[in-house]
Specification:
With 247 residues, the chain is mainly α. The chain has a single domain (18-235), classed as Growth Hormone, Chain: A, CATH 1.20.1250. Helices cover 71% and strands 0% of the residues. The protein contains eight helices and no strands. The protein has helices spanning 16-49, 58-70, 74-98, 110-132, 139-161, 174-185, 190-216, 221-238. Helix 2 packs antiparallel against helix 3, helix 3 (74-98) runs antiparallel to helix 4 (110-132) and helix 3 runs parallel beside helix 5. The protein is globular and about 60 Å long. Residues 1-13 have low confidence and may be disordered.
């Protein structure tokens, strides 16, 4: 009797685990883009409404700190100092909560989710104060509110590092832009840099949304932060793929 070879015999069995990891990677990539939207919106809110300092671009704040010092602009020096210190504290807390990449990590380690929940708490505190102050905080409230937002993005920055993916970030994206340009010049197609471009686009879209809300719908300013970050957390909990091992 002739034995009919199965797909397993011929080595063509569907690689279920491989497909699951690929699906999880695509899902994680989409969620990282949403976090970039959160980052861009928060940066715009900080710069436009909370003292002309960035909550994401700490190198920019360092430049502004130098400018403010040279120009003897005490308010600019203070706002940049608050943003830098708050980001550092947030990044330290995020690193402590999220930890470092370890062998056997899932595509989305649970510690990352915990860190993002801490970030959400900071955004909720910001929202509470923002609304309590009539969506138009006076000067004495700008620095505490700026600090909350910068600390939140510091947390997010460290949380993303837990993925252990070189160059992956939702906060410091100059390196991402440089990588995109280098790869394109080196002959790689758009497909190779598509995710990086999408992250950059998410940042721009977020900044645009944040700007529109600050200018025309101040009461809704915290909503973009809460909705985008909340959507990521809900998606993580509902995901069927993100908790598989990365390797």
């Amino acid at each position: 009797m002739v034995r009919v070879s199965s797909s397993t015999d011929t080595g063509h069995a569907p690689d279920h685990k491989g497909r699951t990891r690929a699906a999880a990677s695509r899902e994680r990539a989409r969620l990282v883009v949403v976090l970039a939207v959160t980052s861009g919106a928060t940066d715009a809110i900080g710069f436009l409404a909370l003292g002309s300092a960035f909550t994401r671009v700490m190198t920019g704040n360092m430049v502004l700190l130098g400018v403010g010092t040279a120009a003897r602009d005490g308010a600019l020096v203070l706002s940049c100092s608050v943003a830098i210190l708050s980001f550092v504290v947030g990044a330290a807390i995020g690193a402590r909560v999220a930890g470092t990449p370890t062998r056997g990590d899932s595509l989305w380690p649970s510690a990352v989710t915990v860190a993002l929940y801490v970030e959400l708490v900071l955004f909720l505190i910001f929202a509470g104060f923002w609304w309590a102050l009539g969506s138009d905080p006076q000067a004495e409230w700008l620095f505490p509110l700026l600090g909350l937002n910068a600390g939140a993005l510091g947390l997010q920055s460290s949380a993303i590092q837990r993925f252990g993916v070189s160059g992956l970030s939702t906060t410091y994206l100059t390196g991402t832009l440089t990588t995109v340009v280098s790869r394109l010049i080196g002959g790689h197609g758009l497909r190779k840099v598509g995710h990086s471009l999408t992250i950059l686009l998410g940042l721009i879209v977020g900044a645009g949304i944040g700007t529109v809300l600050v200018e025309f719908a101040a009461a809704a300013v915290p909503v973009v932060q809460l909705l985008t970050l909340g959507a990521v957390l809900v998606a993580v909990h509902l995901s069927k793929h993100l908790h598989v091992p990365a390797e």
